Amino acid sequence: MVASVVRISAAAERPAIDPHPPRQLPVVDEWGRDQATVNVLAPIARLRWNVDLAGVGNLPAAGGALLVINDRQWSWNPLMAAMAISHHSERTVRFAGRSDRAPGGALLRRLGGILARADEVDTALGEGEIVMIAAASERSPRNVGTVDHRLVAPAVLRSLPVIPVAAVSSPFGRRSRVKVGTPIAHRGQRRGPLSEVELADAAQTHIQQMLEQMGSTGGFDWLIGN
Amino acid sequence: MATRTGTTEGGKRVLVAGIGGELGSLTASLFENEPWVGPVMGIDVDPPRRRLRRAEVHLIDPTDRDRIVDEVTRFNPHVMIHLAVWEPDARAGTAVATRFTHSATTAILGAAAECPAMETVVVRSGIEIYGRRSGSPTRPDESTRLDPTSEYGRTLFDLEQTATSVGERVGLSVARLRLASVVGPHVPSPLGRLLRQPAVPFSALSDSPFTLVEDAHAARAFVAAARAQYAGALNVVSPGAITVYQALRRGRRLPLPLLGPEWFIARQISHLFGAPIPDHVMEVMHRGRLANGQRLQQELGVAPTISAAEVIDRLYAWPSVIHLKNPIQAVA
To answer: Is A164 helix (H, G, I), strand (E, B) or coil?
Structure first.
């Protein structure tokens, strides 16, 4: 019994904190984004998409902002654009639309995905994050689907900038173009939910106009040198 | 003499229900140092885990409602901190923990309603109350709809409902502090106990992130809520998050990746080794558990400062049990 006390006392004199904690080990951020996973998958993403990015300077240097991007079937525009913008700017972009089922949803969460829910978008914007939502997916790369005004509402209620992002990509080709537009002006004339409905429509129109000004990406371009 | 709204000459009387636990005794010790606090009384089935200088402690079984009511009404506190919440498989199995929590809540909050001096009740809840149903928000805040999906979450939901209803009936301010898993070297926690096993199973498919809070930071939140007479819910979570696999790497434990059906066997084996895995911890393993804790800082001016990863580091820094082969020789 005495021996136990002696040994346990000696053990208790050890520092409460390991003097060499493994702090260099990666941890996820508060939303589950894992920079280590991003770093591992970024080269694969660059192999999949060769992105020409423009307009990154339109992103706010600090504070929340809502990006609205067009989507094309099988192109994964939000993922592609969010990774490209995060890579080329100081800000991390979280894209809304991950599933909540493992393993796909878990992987997308590691890459910065959040759920496409208004409360989820609102929480992220409230924490000063840049969140990207997608318009409804379209078959044609030249068409922009409708923008869910419920996901735009948090930005309206928080008076945060809503920025259109146009993306041209192909389900099969590498070459992609992403252009970040200028923030859409909030008219501020509406007091109710029509403000976000009209802002969502405006975002759709802006992206459509941006797409019409962007060229094609070409077709299959996996040959060496592309 | 105490009044309904004023402060007594000797400071406000504070009752800590659940003073025997690590969190309860820590909270009581903080109250003892508060200038606005007068007499401190505690009730629990177990004695406090640390030395308290002036708190008066009564050891009462949570099912002994009459005695609880007698002691509480005799003390007639201004502030009640309800920490008598049994987390399943922390100190008791799920069924017993649920029964104890329900009994203690009924007796303690019922007694609070009978105290004429009572002004503020602060109850310990948890972020398990939000549930982790598929498609539920990743980081729920206090306004998120409550949809508990575990037994512990449902127990906390009942507790909050009872506290809110008592507060409305009698006109008390009721603060509900929703704590992330309270983990620390001394804290009986099924999650902490599981993570300290030599080999720990984790979900290879999801390895979801979760957050924690250290007992010291949680205790400070209780004191701040009582001081401010806060009414409403607040999440108390450490900044940052960590996944189970990342936690195991920090603790140099052997991670056992599991895919699905073998979880049943893993739970049985873990139970045999003294670390049962209740359903709310299983949720953490499969779906993670995060919450937005910004409002705590905004409303009370306090917030946990050490990150979830640092809480994990402190959990693993505590030395394990040392088995002596020959105690006699060791003394010599």
So the answer is: strand
